[in-house]
Amino acid sequence: MLFVGDDWAEDHHDVEVQDDSGRRLGAARLPEGVEGVAKLHALIARHGGEDLEPEQVVVGIETDRGPWVQALLAAGYQVYAVNPRQAARFKERYGSSGAKSDKGDAHALADMVRIDRAQLRPIAGDSEQAQAVKVVARAHQTLIWERTRTFQRLRSMLREYFPGALTAYAGLELTSTDAMELLVKAPTPERAAKLTKQQITVVLARHRRRNRDQKAAAIQTALRDHQLDVAAPVADAYAAAATAHARLLIALNEQIDALQGQVKAHFLAHPDAEIYLSMPGIGEITGARVLAEFGDDPTRYASAKARKNYAGTSPITRASGKSHTVQARFVRNNRLADALQRQAFCALQNSHGARRYYDKQRARDLDYNPALRQLGNRLVGILHGCLKTRTLYSEATAWAHHANLAAA
């Protein structure tokens, strides 16, 4: 077998090829793209000989996506996506000085897949449809996070010169497009106090708000309340910055809505969508996010426990001497954890079994979040069973064991 360490950068890759004994057979710096992949194949062929099969080539690289990784998988190589934290800890065995080089990183990655690949996770062979879901679902969630960050900056700004706007537009949801349009129309307290009820109503009507007259009257009243004054030049400067942030939020709202349609379309086109949607607490967006992070390779998770461990919902045990504690996992896929937390919360509303299980955890004196995490962990196990057997979720089957225990 051959073991390849690939330390990638934006425009090149430093690679090292080793044999079974760890002897370095060759090293090179390869350009990104088709030319680089061709040179890598030639390097492997030169040192592997004619009898080398693609599956006898093991590659370690600190990423799991991109055209380069897809080219390695298409060639039939075993590719392991090494967590950068794992690689950093592994390299500490070479010395404690903290020295670093791209060639040294490639050497360490080759050593890792040669010595410790049993502890590493190979890149899953997800279908093209699952990869498409992952791209749009992650992009959609990233834009939502960016909207939150942008609004927090705007909110901090408004508190410094125009806190009345936060009160006036609270009933519209502060990140909504109509609230931002009103802020752009009147970004200072002086101009906002001059807004007429008709002007406010027109904006609300354009976005199909209900009870427009009452909301417009409430907004107008709040904007005309007295507040502490800020010097005119300072207020104008703040207004220019606030307007820029408000226009950015309007654009983000538009793109989030457009991308949401793409997320639903790609998710519903996946053959597993029906199974995901049968689960309690999962809708089209949450289902797309969970599918995107779990992938659809049927061989990726050997058991329900393996899927739970990857999800980060299963607890970890810390035992040393007389100390023995069970704690939540905090090193995890945050995108997946967020989606599963949302699913568990929503499942409380439409699944009697999930509600009973949650109440049982609370009865054990668990706080809200640990109990919800336990429910999420149970739902991941149920999802694993449904995907493995290709069956839809059944309330009676999923919670039969816990119902029997409760009856006993």
TrEMBL record:
Q: Outline the extent of the Transposase IS116/IS110/IS902 C-terminal domain.
A: 275-358
Q: Where is the Transposase IS110-like N-terminal domain?
A: 4-163
Matching entries from InterPro entries are given as: Transp_IS110-like_N, Transpos_IS110, Transposase_20
- Say which domain of life the source belongs to: Bacteria
Q: Which Pfam families match?
A: DEDD_Tnp_IS110, Transposase_20
Q: What is this protein called?
A: IS110 family transposase
Q: What is the lineage of its organism?
A: Bacteria, Bacillati, Actinomycetota, Actinomycetes, Kitasatosporales
